[in-house]
Amino acid sequence: MLKLVKESEGVVGPGEALIELGNTRALEVEVEVLSVDAVKMAPGTEVELVRWGGEKPLEGRVRVVEPSGFTKISALGVEEQRVRVIADITSPEQEWQRLGHGYRVEAVFILWRGEQVLQVPASALFRTGEQWNVYAIEGGLAKKRAVTLGHRNGLAAEVVSGVKEGERVIPHPDESVVDGKMVVVKE
């Protein structure tokens, strides 16, 4: 039994639920995601389930991206279009047997994975027209570099060209940073 809907005696109407039954050994994860993110997912997309209370993340796979969205008001009062994504837990049952119906987990969807990916913090990027740029540090000077980007998320971006491995870039450059300006690196 998952939930007792009707706790005490009384009149029960036709079709009214009394209890919820379910198999807690066959849990699924239901996640509400923004519709702009849902379009990037499909059945089979890898999922990491984190902050669920266990020692390590659990693995899962998307089973269904529901075909219709709904409007929800965010914590900041913004209307958002959301879509439900259903994922199955693929980690061995003994790793997640303490989870139960209605428990909270956070889902990280793996939309792309690469080996030996050169990346820069998203905070180091700025645009000049349509071109992405960074300020690299060369001999104590800030040097503006055009970069070609690959995959991006909110925290980092894959660099296809423009900087090389080991080169330092300036995170959070403000308007005082210009090409050729002397910079001091603080460790």
Feature tags:
mainly beta; 187 residues; conserved putative lor/sdh protein from methanococcus maripaludis s2 fold; Elongation Factor Tu (Ef-tu), domain 3; five-stranded antiparallel β-sheet
What are the SSEs and their pairings?
Layout: E1 3-4, E2 19-20, E3 28-34, H1 35-38, E4 46-50, E5 58-73, E6 79-89, H2 93-96, E7 106-110, E8 119-121, E9 126-128, E10 131-138, E11 141-152, E12 156-161
Antiparallel strand pairs: 1-2, 3-6, 4-5, 4-7, 5-6, 8-12, 9-10, 10-11, 11-12
Task: Briefly say what this structure is.
The chain is mostly beta strands.
Report on the structure:
- The chain is mostly beta strands.
- The protein folds into 2 domains: 27-110, Elongation Factor Tu (Ef-tu), domain 3, CATH 2.40.30; 114-187, conserved putative lor/sdh protein from methanococcus maripaludis s2 fold, CATH 2.40.420.20.
- Helices cover 4% and strands 43% of the residues.
- The protein has 2 helices and 12 strands, in the order E-E-E-H-E-E-E-H-E-E-E-E-E-E.
- The chain has helices spanning 35-38, 93-96, and strands spanning 3-4, 19-20, 28-34, 46-50, 58-73, 79-89, 106-110, 119-121, 126-128, 131-138, 141-152, 156-161.
- A 5-stranded antiparallel β-sheet has the order 3-6-5-4-7. The protein has a 5-stranded antiparallel β-sheet with strand order 8-12-11-10-9, with no helix packed on it. Strands 1-2 form a two-stranded antiparallel ribbon.
- The mean pLDDT is 92.
